[in-house]
Amino acid sequence: MARNPQRRAALADAGLRVLAAHGARGLTHRAVDAEAGVPVGTTSNYFRSRDALLGALGERIFERFAPDDAVVAELAARPPSSALLTDYVRYIVERTTRHPELTRALIELRLESARRPDLARILGDTLRRGYRADVAYHLGAGLPGGAFEVALLRYAVDGLLLDLLTTSIDAGFDPDQVVAALVSRLAGDVPPGG
């Protein structure tokens, strides 16, 4: 297996562009090679199977969605409160809507994983690792609620993102107001550690 991390990341980014533009059916090793402008066979040297490619795309999405350390430090300097939790969730929504193609690609991957058990295992590991990290951070920061509230917020934000970045119900509510209401109703009155 090829080991150049920069090439691997560039191929994954090309794969994400293909996935966002053409869906899971359009994602092939050759399509990624073409998108990346590399010789045919390069992608298959890095990702031996389709499931390995799809799983690597899931990992790359989360690498690219990583929060800015300066923003996190600024938020972490504030005392724990529902208002702080609201601002954390706002920051998540801002990061994931700033690059809609990444969020759409993640939605595509999640749908594809329902049909591909090997991808479900790979992507599921990535998603569960992210959830556990969110819970650990949440508890460590003393934010209202615990693992259950983090799960509720993830479920709600996933639905909000689906509506914002795909065909919308057009309910007419401002996403910022939606985030504030979600946090208030799902974790607002719950003590830290829930």
UniProtKB/TrEMBL annotation:
<dbReference type="InterPro" id="IPR009057">
    <property type="entry name" value="Homeodomain-like_sf"/>
</dbReference>
<keyword id="KW-0238">DNA-binding</keyword>
<protein>
    <submittedName>
        <fullName>TetR family transcriptional regulator</fullName>
    </submittedName>
</protein>
<dbReference type="InterPro" id="IPR050109">
    <property type="entry name" value="HTH-type_TetR-like_transc_reg"/>
</dbReference>
<dbReference type="InterPro" id="IPR041583">
    <property type="entry name" value="TetR_C_31"/>
</dbReference>
<feature type="DNA-binding region" description="H-T-H motif">
    <location>
        <begin position="28"/>
        <end position="47"/>
    </location>
</feature>
<dbReference type="Pfam" id="PF17940">
    <property type="entry name" value="TetR_C_31"/>
</dbReference>
<dbReference type="InterPro" id="IPR001647">
    <property type="entry name" value="HTH_TetR"/>
</dbReference>
<feature type="domain" description="HTH tetR-type">
    <location>
        <begin position="5"/>
        <end position="65"/>
    </location>
</feature>
<dbReference type="Pfam" id="PF00440">
    <property type="entry name" value="TetR_N"/>
</dbReference>
